[in-house]
Amino acid sequence: xxxxxxxxxxxxxxxxxxxxxxxxxxxxxxxxxxxxxxxxxxxxxxxxxxxxxxxxxxxxxxxxxxxxxxxxxxxxxxxxxxxxxxxxxxxxxxxxxxxxxxxxxxxxxxxxxxxxxxxxxxxxxxxxxxxxxxxxxxxxxxxxxxxxxxxxxxxxxxxxxxxxxxxxxxxxxxxxxxxxxxxxxxxxxxxxxxxxxxxxxxxxxxxxxxxxxxxxxxxxxxxxxxxxxxxxxxxxxxxxxxxxxxxxxxxxxxxxxxxxxxxxxxxxxxxxxxxxxxxxxxxxxxxxxxxxxxxxxxxxxxxxxxxxxxxxxxxxxxxxxxxxxxxxxxxxxxxxxxxxxxxxxxxxxxxxxxxxxxxxxxxxxxxxxxxxxxxxxxxxxxxxxxxxxxxxxxxxxxxxxxxxxxxxxxxxxx
Length: 414
Known about the structure:
By secondary structure, the protein is α/β, with parallel strands linked by helices.
């Protein structure tokens, strides 16, 4: 029967990596035998295991090995093999059987040397530059004819996500979606993590939907920006339009937020807001000329927060700052997301999933939404590091600001 021996090391017991590998082998129709296992005796100790995998056919064995490699199980006989590189035959087209990336830290072996792949991102290929001996994740639309692309799984290895030693925030949340956990305790954990990120001069990314404005939560996002807890903001046309509508007319979708009543002809307000900003030339110009004097995007301009507005087919206007080319928007988001340490996604499904697709698994990610399916979709797409909190965004942000106010950020906005 075709077989191969794999080895796996690290915190494979308490991070549940070993059980996941064994379960994958069985569920895919193969069998295993543990040849050797060494279990660490202290919290800081690493464990090690050698496992023989057997499958009825070579094709199934190859499939099993490819899947368990995603959890760090590397065939022993592949340890010294170099990756296969093939040139792209045309712009935008990978070679057949190219290696499809995960968002985990990845290495490729080239010329007897392991190279860490830069900018880890799921659903891409790996481009290798032999002159500089660099490797990077690259999406379809950025492949150029002649680029050397990794093909197959030989000469690649992945570092699975392990628990932190010592333990850090979110450790006690065993489920990616929290509906039953005490929300106050979870929000305090999130606040402490954000404080630590800023003390370490890390960058925080916020992804937000227009529900922040409709629920009256925009004031708390403004506070986060003012206190230096937001370095990058991703959103769509909707958040910006309704934020600026509120700044100009005190309404959101024509409804007065303080009175909860519809303004006369209020349905026109968001269109008037779009027109006013288009007339000014853009959001920054609208702020600099005094047209917009408060709100989320006023604060972004004032405090130098980068923002990317990615458009959709349903957008009104849109605002001049909205990127209507999807691939261009992806590239801009990739650029701004690099170097982010923490991502907070709130009240948005499409932008949360889109951002999750771009983030390395090492970026701590929190998703807050009244709909638990949002986090489920995130994890189904591969953003398995995402922790979800099922609640309305307004009480969440209000409580988060209260916890953050208990201690200063420790770092100025940047």
